From TrEMBL:
Residues 3-157 form the Aspartyl/asparaginy/proline hydroxylase domain. SUPFAM superfamilies: Clavaminate synthase-like. Gene3D superfamilies: B-lactam Antibiotic, Isopenicillin N Synthase, Chain. This is Aspartyl/asparaginy/proline hydroxylase domain-containing protein.
């Protein structure tokens, strides 16, 4: 679904970037060695974030059809923009209860890559990368213009419905 609708998602994200860069807040977890990395969060802990969907109504309407993403209390749905020269330290996510999807929206080539354990990949526009972010991962943005992706966390498929319902939000 993300790959089929990537241009719609991209176009809404670009419109929001043009109108109000203030929606993209700086990454606050001290994960960067250097550079600029902004995030525009639509869902957090299984709940829609304020009026964030007003700027991207088609994207949010698409996501509403997938409760495994919108209802993931241990994840987020957000846009991520990273400027040239950014390096994200090797780090791990807080839980293995989710899988993280990255949909490439604007990917300058070459120079944008992610390493998860011993595999390094480059994003592609319109394509999804899926990984378990509880494993160590690291990002480099060495291209000459910004990189824009859409991040969607979903419940790990091996979790039972009971586990999904009873796990606390993080």
């Amino acid at each position: 679904m993300l790959e089929r609708n990537w241009k719609t998602i991209r176009d809404e994200a670009l419109a929001v970037m043009d109108r109000s860069r203030g929606r993209f807040l700086p990454e606050e977890e001290n994960l960067r060695e250097k550079g600029e990395w902004g995030q525009y969060t639509l869902w957090q802990q299984g709940k829609r974030v304020g009026n964030a969907c007003q700027g991207v109504p088609k994207t949010c309407a698409l996501m509403e059809r997938f409760p495994e993403a919108t209802g993931c209390k241990r994840g987020q749905i957000k846009f991520s923009v990273m400027q040239p020269g950014t390096h994200v330290w090797p780090h791990t996510g807080p839980t293995n209860c989710r899988l993280r999807m990255h949909l490439g929206l604007v990917i300058p080539a070459p120079g944008c890559r992610i390493r998860c354990t011993d595999q390094t990949r480059e994003w592609e526009e319109g394509k999804v990368l899926i990984f378990d972010d509880s494993f160590e991962h690291e990002v480099w943005q060495d291209a000459d213009s910004y990189r824009l992706i859409f991040i969607v966390d979903v419940w790990h498929p091996e979790l039972s419905q009971y586990q999904r319902q009873t796990l606390s939000p993080i």
